[in-house]
Structures are given as structure tokens and as C-alpha cells.
Predict the 3D structure of the following.
Amino acid sequence: MNGKINDSFYMQLCLDAAWKYQGLTYPNPAVGSCIVDNNGKLVAVSSHKTSGSSHAELNVISKTLKLLGHTKIDKLETAEKKYQYILDNHNNIFKNFTIYVTLEPCNHKGKTPPCSILIKTLGFKKVIIGSMDLNEDASGGAKLLEDAGLEVKKGLMQNKCDSLLTPFKKWQENKPYIFFKLAISQNGVYSGGVISSLESRELVHKLRAKIDLLVIGGNTVRVDRPTLDCRLSGGKAPDVLIYSRRDDFDYDIPLFKVLGRKVFIKNSLNKMQEYRFIMIEGGEGMFEESIKVVDNILLFTAPIFKTGKTLQLDLKLKCLHTFKNNLDCIQWFKPF
């Protein structure tokens, strides 16, 4: 790439990488990072993938080393081992490189070593940051890098980067983070069996393995007779809240047979206040009942047309991010 480096272009790559793991990193924030060489050429993009694992900066630095022949780094099992391997083998290859990250590099040792010190030690020329870290224990990375003489740019595309932090902020405030998951066909049908692709359903099952509580409407349970487990991804199935004014359920429905979970049948949504990470699934009725309490909406739109019930809603949403897997369009929204 010749001429001036387009910082916003590269930060958008970081955002794209982070949104693919939104919810999967809870209670940690989803974070994306990329590295660009001194000619403005993209070297690598990566993200934080699950709570307690390597942060986005460590992942993208590891990926860069691997591209340069250090394949051994993939075999290292912990963030600490990767961190030390990088310190021992970087050979100043990151000098004059720029690193972009959606969130200020952490400045403390938690489950992983501090990214700020790693970036400083490797000699990056420039650090471009989207959001500043609001966690007092982890903040201060930008100042440390500035004090070390690195060029630091803060607040690039900050509003877009901040939108990734809603689950993390709710966790910091000790409040529930609630999102609604909905799958529809291209013509707006949400009923009548499986709609989204296997890849999309695998993502939903990964999210189910992370949440504390899954909320679903009573009519959906009676008609679809779901299991609502994590069989496509593994992990513990969440507790279930069935929102219903009647309790006349067939207890042979599979969701009642899943071991290790609690199932509540309630005529209000108040039970959600006892949990911290909540996904609501359902159709139009459940959507209307819960829209005032949800923080985000996760919408899967499949490239199919089918017959069935279509959404009939008058609702304004702000689209936070859109991406695609092999078949479906996946979007995160925020209600106005």
C-alpha cells in the first residue's frame, strides 16, 4: 500500500474480528487486533476468543510469528508460555510496526500477562487504540506506552469500539446482560422448524454454553418441543426460564430431561434479575414482551424463502455490526 495508511480501515478489520466472538468471551470484553508493517501492509488479524485465554494482542503477535516460521508457538498451551516464547524469539521483527486494538492494552497481570508491557518490549513504533479501558485494575496501558516513547493514538472509531463493551460494562456494574436471539428467513418467517445454517446453530450452541439463563416462551416450548442444550458445541446447558401464564406442559419435552439444569415456569420475567448472562429465544410474541429489557439483539437471516409466521413489528434498531458465515447474515443490534 502506497501513501498514507488508512487507520480506520485497519481498525474496522479489528472490529470485524472481535464481533465474531461477541458473547463468547464473557465476562471479558470481545477485542480485536491487527498488525501492519511500516509499508502499510497488513501482516495479521486476530481476536480474544474466550475468557481466560490469550488476549487479542498476544494472539495477533503469535500469529505474526507463526507466519514468519515460528510454528512451534501453536503448540504452546498457555498464554504465559506464548508470552515468554515471544520475548525470547521476536528478534526485533516488530520494530517500526503498528498494532491496532479495539480496547486499550491491559496493564496488569490477571489470567494472562500484561499486553502493554509486551507491546513496549517488542518495540512497536505505533499503537492505535479504539476504546479506553474502564477497568481500574487493567487500565493505564496507553500511558505506559506513551511514557516509553511509543506513538499512541487513542479514540479511533471509539463509538464503534465502545459498542463491543456492553456485556463487560454490565458485568462490572453487577447487572444482567440480556440479548435476544432470533432467526428469520429472507422473507421474514421465524416459525416452522430449522431456519439458520448448521454453522449458525453451532454459534448459538456455543453462546448457550456461556450464558447462565435461557429464556423462552411457553408457546414455543409446547409447539417446538425443544431440547435447548449445547450438543453442537459441548458445555453445560444453561438454566431455562419458560415465560408462560399457564403451566400445562408435557414434561416429556426434551428440555425438561437435560441433567444439571434448573427449569423455571413463571408468568413474569423477574427471575432474570437473579442471573448475569441471559439469552432470550423465541418469536414475535416473546420479542414484544422482552424488548424493553434487552441490551442487544442477535439476528440470523438465512438466504431462504419459506412459508410460516412473519414478523409484524414496528421497531427501530441501531445496527452495530453485520457479518456473514458461509450461508447466513449475522447482525447485532441495539434497540433505540
Q: What stands out?
A: The chain has ten helices and 13 strands.
